[in-house]
Design brief:
157 residues, alpha+beta, five-stranded mixed barrel, 20% helix, 32% strand, globular
Length: 157
């Protein structure tokens, strides 16, 4: 009998109270803002650190800023690309990648197919025929962030 009373108490008193709290309005869409793509920003500076996840979520918040970004460097059709990771490169998930617009290609020597850290100006891609969402222009540095060990490719005849 005590179990039945406890069950009825929970069913008729506790559940409606909890459900009423969950149904509360959390705010209108005007009050909610998108996550800024930059974090660890120096106050008053246009330089910022970012991640692919934050930039993909709100690319316009990083547009025109000097940004630090880590990604997988690989070519795609003659264009230097920075992918989120090696998996995105392997499966050609280019819509989550950014192109690298470099004046001096020697800055990329020895860094292909590696996780690299890039500092460059981020801009949204203006050419709607390109599948990537942005461009990193004139990088001030490109350095290997994490060495990827792999065997040398073997030519199959």
């Amino acid at each position: 009998m005590n179990n039945l009373v406890g069950y009825l108490f929970v069913s008729f008193l506790v559940f409606p109270v909890v459900s009423g709290c969950a149904a509360r309005d959390e705010g209108t869409s005007e009050e909610m803002t998108l996550l800024d793509a930059c974090f660890q920003r120096i106050k008053g500076s246009e330089k910022c650190s970012g991640s692919f996840e934050r930039i993909i979520a709100n690319p316009s918040s990083a547009a025109g800023k000097e940004i630090n970004l880590v990604g997988y460097l690989a070519p795609r059709g003659g264009v230097a690309m920075l992918y989120r990771d090696e998996h995105d490169y392997s499966y050609d998930i280019v819509m989550n990648a950014v192109a690298l617009d470099v004046e001096d290609a020697s800055i990329l020597e020895g860094k292909w197919y590696q996780m690299v850290r890039v500092q460059a100006r981020f801009d949204l891609e203006k050419n709607e025929n390109h599948p990537w969402f942005g461009v990193l222009s004139s990088p001030s540095y490109v350095e290997v962030a994490r060495k990827v060990d792999r065997l040398e490719p073997v030519a199959v005849h």
